[in-house]
Amino acid sequence: MRALAMALTLCTIAAPLDAQRSRATARKPVPKPAPVTAPADVKCPEQLGVGVKTHETFCFVLAGRNPTDGVLVTIPSHTEATLTFDLHNRHSYSEEEVKAGRGFAKYTAVIGVLSMTGDLLGRGAVQTEFRTVRDLYDRITGGAGPGGTKAVAPLGVEHISISIPPGVDQVSLLGEVLEAVTSAGREIATPGRPVAIISNTQVKYVPAPPPRKPRNH
Q1: How many CB atoms lie within 10 A of CB 128?
Q2: In the prediction, which pLDDT does 42 show?
Q3: What whole-number distance in Å separates Cα of residue 211 and Cα of residue 15?
Q4: What is the mean pLDDT of the chain?
Q5: CA-CA distance, 131 to 99, in Å (whole number)?
Q6: For residue 177, what are the domain limits?
Q7: Dihedral pair phi/psi, residue 32, rounded to 5°
Q8: Domain at 92, CATH number
Q9: CA atoms within 13 A on the CB side of 71
Q10: Which of 23, 126, 153, 199 has its Cβ near the most Cβ atoms within 10 Å?
Q11: In contact, 205 and 66? CB cutoff 8 Å
């Protein structure tokens, strides 16, 4: 009986010790990488220039269907990613026409965000009206206008957010729809012509884990 009692006591002591060892050797869960927000790597086929007020770089989005002809944005390797940018209409400002009472213009532009295989990932749209120079979002440096600004300027702004699936490492922005009413008449989207303008392009993403190293046999 004394031997049996001692054996039971040893088992009772050993059980908590085994549980402690098990907890100590249990692997800790790998923490999920924190999201990263960074300016996007943008390849712009036709650049408008740099803004006087915002100091942002403005890029034309051209009408077309071939992803290689669009504004190309590189997306870092990710498990989750969101592409954001500011979308503007394109306006040619004329102080003479404004003074003559012919300055009114109205624009609607729609662009698509596509994978490089042509899959549509999302769309962005912006609609604005122009009456006076105060309606312009910004003026662009490097022109012959007042203060050395260009006549073409971004008008209005819509903040666009598009989810990018894992495995997509580059996207293309292409113009789809343009409805413009100006003193020169009506204008629609034709291939290769500017439909809209983008700026402030950023990518927010959760980095993908590094590839596993092959085991040595």
Answers
A1: 20
A2: 98
A3: 40
A4: 89
A5: 11
A6: 36-204
A7: -70, 135
A8: 2.60.120
A9: 30
A10: 153
A11: no
Which residues in the chain come in under a pLDDT of 50?
A: 4-11, 13, 17
Q: How far apart are the first and last CA of the chain?
A: 54
Report in angstroms the alpha-carbon separations of 200 from 29, 53, 59, 91, 158: 37, 13, 10, 19, 11
Write the CA distances from 156 to 49, 171, 208, integer angstroms: 17, 24, 36
Model pTM?
Answer: 0.83
- Give the span between the Cα atoms of 202 and 114, in whole angstroms: 16
Residue listed under structure tokens 């549980």: 19
Give every CB contact of residue 132 below 8 A, 6+ residues apart in sequence.
98, 103
29 within some domain: no
- Residue 146: what pLDDT? 78
Cβ within 8 Å of residue 68, ≥6 positions away: 116, 172
Q: Is residue 23 part of a domain?
A: no
Amino acid (one-letter) located at 187: E
Q: Is residue 187 part of a domain?
A: yes
The tokens describing 214, both together, are 């092959």
Give the span between the Cα atoms of 197 and 129, in whole angstroms: 15
Between CA 171 and CA 114 the distance in angstroms is: 6
pLDDT of residue 6: 47
